[in-house]
Amino acid sequence: MAVKRKNFNFEEGRQKLFTPGRVAAILAGAAILSFGIYNIHQRTDITEGGVLGMILLLNHWFGISPAVTTPVLDVLCYAFAFRHLGKNFLKVSLISTLSFAGFFHLWEQFPPLLPDLSSYSLAAAILGGVLVGSGVGLVVRQGASCGGDDALALTISKLTGCRISRAYLVADISVLLLSLTYIPAQHIAFSLLTVTISSLLVDFMQNFSYRTKPEKETRSERRAAVSEPAKEHSHAPGNLRSDGHQKGYPTKL
């Protein structure tokens, strides 16, 4: 897991956490994620796992409003994440969470921009998974999350050392299995497809974002490894110094 706990002073932390590139990537991810949920998930019978699926489950069986369960579950997940990922994670996640809410409100001001895919569950599952995975992936690779389920997956991945896709799938599949109590199995199957696609895509984008740094480090290490034998060779016996004596042997006084 590439999310690491870092200690920043206020000025240094603010400069590093909220760079223009990072903020732009978070805004783009929040826009894509909210666009996919508004145009696909909200209009079809494709549900989600994780916190969103649990919210729908609690609403169906206990009549608890999502307005109540959403902040409660998100706060619990973020509190758990704060303990293991640190306060800087919460600072960046605040930007992504507010951005997601703002973009979702923006999309609601217009009619859906995509055709209704309610009758094409396979297409809805694939396209929905791609949009959600791309949006969440852009946010997660910046060390942030758009909701409690992302924070929970990042924390599980950090604690267990498993890939982030597995952390997402464990939470999603658990909730989807519980959702069988009120959602037809056929719809659950398509929901499983969309969460699998989104989880794998998030995992790919997360690994891709940190792949270049180790390669640069490897090249520098190779340069150092090449230079070391040269230094050792320059001090090896048999190499003559400028005064004619062999290097590596003491000279006579």
Automatic annotation (TrEMBL):
Protein name: YitT family protein
Entry keywords, A to Z: Cell membrane, Membrane, Transmembrane, Transmembrane helix
Chain positions covered by the region annotation Disordered: 213-253
Record carries keyword Transmembrane helix: yes
PANTHER family xrefs: UPF0750 MEMBRANE PROTEIN YITT-RELATED (PTHR33545), UPF0750 MEMBRANE PROTEIN YPJC (PTHR33545:SF10)
Biased composition range(s): Basic and acidic residues: 213-235
Domain of life: Bacteria
Any Gene Ontology CC annotation: plasma membrane
Organism of derivation: Acetonema longum DSM 6540
Pfam family name, one: YitT_membrane
